């Protein structure tokens, strides 16, 4: 049988481990949300670049955009 102080140390270590796991899970959730935002920003930049590239290659589309502004 182990001494009571070893049992208490084990219980405390287990609680700290559980807290670390919860912290890691929360960080993963936040990281996933951040990655989604970055992907959205990159997609919007890519779409903007595609539109500019298309407008440069299609003078009619460029004229239409100028008329709308």
List the helices and strands and how they pair.
Elements: H1 4-57, H2 59-68
Structural features, described:
By secondary structure, the chain is mostly helical. The chain has 2 helices and no strands. The radius of gyration is 28 Å and the shape is rod-shaped.
Task: Give descriptors for this structure.
69 residues, mainly alpha, 93% helix
In brief:
The protein has 69 residues and is mainly α. Helices cover 93% and strands 0% of the residues.
Q: What are the segments in which pLDDT stays under 50 over at least 5 consecutive residues?
A: none
Distance between the termini: 82 Å
- Helical proportion, percent range: over 70%
Largest sheet: none
Q: What does the radius of gyration come to? A: 28 Å
Q: What is the element string, with H for helices and E for strands?
A: HH
Quick one: how many beta strands?
0
Question: Can you tell me the overall shape?
Answer: rod-shaped
Query: Proportion of β residues?
Result: under 5%
Q: What is the mean pLDDT?
A: 85
Helix and strand composition category? mainly alpha
Q: Tally the helices: what do you get?
A: 2
